[in-house]
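Renewal narrative, Specific Aim 1. Our central claim is that a sequence can be written position by position from structural information alone. The example that follows is taken directly from our test logs and has not been curated for this report. It begins with the structure tokens describing the chain, in the order in which they were read.
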């Protein structure tokens, strides 16, 4: 008899966690499992990649109204004489605006947001809150399941969360999964009472799929003779450190390097980054490409992949660049050494613009080092499809 599984995630817009879920869903044996997915937003870059066997649960009417802009939401609630939810919508906005930390917004807002959501009627064998915060809170508060799992995709200490708030939810989970040994170490230190629940399952990436998709289009970059193309992928968010990338680009251009630096991603920092690019007159050198459903041709055709993150769990984009044998420069965030061995399969540099520029300069001007990194990547075993078996054991 098939087991009933539920995955919960706010949306399938661009993001490493979102892509990780799509990769996982593509590997599940649907002869063994019935799979539902609950989303708070049915728009997103990865919606089209949900396997046909997965049942997407409908949005709830009250939440649909809650997610509207404030005044429109209140108007709709009042029109339906739903005064309690109108008040909760106001309190939610006040809570978010008064919160002193972006890391706790989602936590404290949950009290009011959750009142627009009803319990799911179906009973599941296993329910999985696939991202930190809201996904896990919904899993605990709004789902009936024999086993409940929370999945943390980042270094917990860098999320800015209130650990006391999360502990109340972690206590009610049967398993806590994360994406790297370093992330697991952080969780065990922060939540010692939950140590026995914490396990590592790596993000699932498939070299055969990535290599196939990397050949889907012709040339994607326009470059002048001898020009080196640098690529970064990530949300336009403070976490990704793209302001350091812009400063590093300025340093490289100033020192006479013939480069173009492209970024695939979208987010709330776009306008700030555009202002910084214009301020430094780098419009012809640093280009924000927006979202791309298939980033692999871009990775394949770049000369150097650079990740300027301030913190990560385990970066899927970095694994993808490794699979496509790209010379890599990353900043020395806490989990960097989980994926890159310095001077063996990439360069790890300090978290500042000058060091980032210096690492890129090495790969531009030292072909022996560059070729060594590429050769070492070409013999690495990089597929993680078998990680699905770890999940089966827990299920």
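The sequence written for that structure reads:
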């Amino acid at each position: 008899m098939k087991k009933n599984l539920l995955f919960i995630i706010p949306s399938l817009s661009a993001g490493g966690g979102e892509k990780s879920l799509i990769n996982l869903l593509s590997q599940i044996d649907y002869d063994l499992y019935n799979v539902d997915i609950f989303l708070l937003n049915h728009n997103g870059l990865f919606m089209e990649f949900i396997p046909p066997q997965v049942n997407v649960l409908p949005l709830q009417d009250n939440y649909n109204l809650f997610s509207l802009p404030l005044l429109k939401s209140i108007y709709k609630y009042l029109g339906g004489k739903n005064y309690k939810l109108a008040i909760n919508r106001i309190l939610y906005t006040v809570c978010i605006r008064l919160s002193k930390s972006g890391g706790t917004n989602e936590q404290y807002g949950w009290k009011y947001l959750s009142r627009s959501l009803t319990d799911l009627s179906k009973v599941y064998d296993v329910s999985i809150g696939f991202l930190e915060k809201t996904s896990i809170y919904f899993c605990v508060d709004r789902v009936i399941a024999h086993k409940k799992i929370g999945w943390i995709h980042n270094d917990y200490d860098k999320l800015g969360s209130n650990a006391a708030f999360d502990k109340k939810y972690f206590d009610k989970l049967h398993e806590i999964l994360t994406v790297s040994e370093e992330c697991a170490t952080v969780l065990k230190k922060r939540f010692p009472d939950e140590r026995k629940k914490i396990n590592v399952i790596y993000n699932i990436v498939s070299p055969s799929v990535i290599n196939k998709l990397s050949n889907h289009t012709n040339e994607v970059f326009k470059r002048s003779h001898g020009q080196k193309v640098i690529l970064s992928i990530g949300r336009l968010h403070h976490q990704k450190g793209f302001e350091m990338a812009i400063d590093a680009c300025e340093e490289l251009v100033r020192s006479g390097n013939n480069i173009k630096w492209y970024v695939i991603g979208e987010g709330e920092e776009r306008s700030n980054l555009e202002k910084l690019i214009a301020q430094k007159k780098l419009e012809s050198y640093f280009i924000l490409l927006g979202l791309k459903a298939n980033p692999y041709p871009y990775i394949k055709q770049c000369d150097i992949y650079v990740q300027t993150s301030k913190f990560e769990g385990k970066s899927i984009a970095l694994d993808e660049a490794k699979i496509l044998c790209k010379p890599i420069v990353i900043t020395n965030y806490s989990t960097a050494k989980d994926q890159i061995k310095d001077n063996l399969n990439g360069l790890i540099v300090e978290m500042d613009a000058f060091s980032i520029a210096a690492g890129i300069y090495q790969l531009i001007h030292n072909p022996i080092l560059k070729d060594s990194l590429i050769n070492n990547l070409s013999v690495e075993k990089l597929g993680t499809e078998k990680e699905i078996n770890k999940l089966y054991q827990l299920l």
